[in-house]
Structures are given as structure tokens and as C-alpha cells.
Amino acid sequence: MLIAGSCRAYVCRDLVDMRNGVDGLSYLVEPLLAQHPMSGHLFVFVGRDRRKVKILYWDRTGFALWYKRLERGRFPAPESLTQRGLSVAELHAWLEGIDIPPLQPHPPVTAQRVA
Questions:
Q1: What is the pTM of this model?
Q2: Residue 9 CB contacts under 8 Å (≥ 6 apart), including other chains
Q3: Residues 98, 58, 11, 26, CA torsion sign
Q4: What is the mean pLDDT of each run of 10 residues along the chain (115 residues)?
Q5: C or N: which end of the chain has fewer Cβ atoms within 10 Å?
Q6: Which InterPro entries does the record associate with it (predicted)?
């Protein structure tokens, strides 16, 4: 699996039924994530108990589905991630259990002179 550096990961805020396969999840991408399922981005779906994650993506020739089930613990809550696309590095960290905080942009600076 090769993921382009420009690829973004979009996490679904709503918890989904993990019995959904490629077809069921691909139908959820547009209404829940406001993205096109064949865009090449990663679409992350979290199970009701937050122990299971499925990632759907289009790899030029068809859909691929990646699945992970935790034996202990739960994935961090996806609510804070749904407002933006994650980088692949942020997605890896989140899958390892690191809670990704919302991004806070640098405050604007009004400069009067060059120091």
C-alpha cells in the first residue's frame, strides 16, 4: 500500500456498524464526510465501542479496506478530528492511541516595523 504525501485522512464523527464492507462504507463517504469516495483520500470509520477502525480508500484500480481491532483499550474519541483532514502522520499517531488536539492557528501579528 503506497499512500501519497498529499493524501488526507477524513474521520467520520458518527460511529458506524463495523459489519459494513466496502460498498456500505463507500456510500457513507459523501453524506457523512462531504468527500468523493474515489478521491484517493483515506476515510476512517470507528466502531460503536471504539475498539475497531476501518479505513477505506481508492487506490486507482479499486477500493481497498484496512481494518484494525484493539485487544485492549479504545481509540481516542474521533469528535475533535472531524473538522479537518488529518495528515498521514497524524493518522498513524491516532491509530497508536495518541489523542490529536484540534489545530490552533498562530494568531495574526500586526507589524509596525521590522526588528
A1: 0.81
A2: 41, 42, 43, 44, 55, 85, 86, 87, 88, 90, 91
A3: negative
A4: 76 90 94 90 92 92 93 83 76 84 70 78
A5: C
A6: Transposase_IS66_Orf2
